[in-house]
Design goal:
Blueprint: H1 5-26, H2 31-53, H3 65-77, H4 85-110, H5 117-141, H6 153-156, H7 160-185, H8 189-212, H9 219-235, H10 244-269
Helix pairs in contact: 1-2, 1-3, 1-4, 2-3, 2-5, 3-4, 3-5, 4-5, 5-7, 5-9, 7-8, 8-9, 8-10
């Protein structure tokens, strides 16, 4: 990356202002309209970040995935915050977290050497935080996505369409974040994309299973975040230690689990 330190600092501050402004504006829309924002906010952050941080070497696409998911998730999750000073505190917390993640990604972009184990651990930590915010945001805007204790899925208004939307939204969050942590681990984009697909499948299956048992409120997003972290630990091996048959059997097993979870949900709603 060709940005000098002062220019990078200015770009970082501008992106923080843009992200906080977008999340604050998202608080003004209804939950129904927030569904559109979940798609638009990450895209806006990727576009703004690419324009602000582009260097002579490459466009920092991977480096913007965690900030983009964090922005989209916060724009949806802020719907859960009651109007008042709580919104101000939530925006301040988001600004601090977003700034720290962006500072990490900018440093890694400017780093002439490869990513160290400590750097990969920091990227994973940032991805885990973004995962919790993203999963919470998806559950917040999907009707019945955050059930109250003792309330069944049917009573909470969770339809088959809403359940599918919840699983797909969580899978997209895991796909983006899984690609980022895999890109920090592997040099090949093919390896990173293949690994990211397994994150998405695992989280989609886990989201369907957790919603089938009606876990209350934020327990669901927290459990999905734990699944994301544990799956990353399972995949934290060097590319030369991974074998193609293992990827094949993982995919088959995940497909079987997906069928079981879908059948389980349909049976509960029958």
């Amino acid at each position: 990356m060709s940005l000098h330190a002062p220019a990078a600092l200015v770009a970082r501050r501008e992106l923080v202002v843009v992200a906080v402004t977008l999340v604050a504006l998202a608080r003004l829309v209804t939950r129904a309209d927030a569904l559109v924002l979940v798609v638009l906010l990450p895209l806006a952050m990727v576009v703004a970040g690419t324009a602000a941080l582009r260097g002579d070497r490459r466009a920092p696409f991977e480096s913007l995935l965690v900030p983009a998911v964090l922005t989209g998730g916060a724009g949806a999750a802020i719907q859960l915050v009651p109007a008042g000073l709580g919104v101000v505190a939530a925006l301040a917390l988001f600004a601090f977290g977003f700034d720290r993640v962006l500072a990490l990604e900018i440093r890694l972009l400017a780093q002439p050497t490869g990513t160290s184990e400590a750097d990969r651990a920091r990227v994973l930590a940032a991805a885990v935080v973004a995962a919790f915010v993203g999963f919470t945001g998806i559950a917040a805007i999907v009707p019945g996505g955050l059930p109250e204790p003792g309330v069944s899925s049917a009573d909470a208004g969770l339809t088959e369409g809403s359940l599918l939307l919840l699983a797909v939204g969580d899978a997209l969050v895991a796909l983006a974040l899984g690609y980022r942590v895999a890109a920090a681990r592997y040099g090949s984009r093919l390896h990173a994309a293949r690994s990211a697909a397994t994150y998405a499948i695992v989280i989609a299956v886990a989201a369907g299973a957790l919603r089938a048992v009606d876990v209350p409120r934020l327990v669901g997003p927290a459990a999905l975040t734990l699944v994301f972290y544990l799956w990353d630990g399972l995949h934290a091996t060097a590319p030369d230690r991974r074998r193609e048959p293992r990827f094949l059997w993982e995919t088959i097993l995940l497909g079987v689990l997906a069928i079981v979870v879908v059948a389980w949900n349909l049976r509960l709603r029958a």
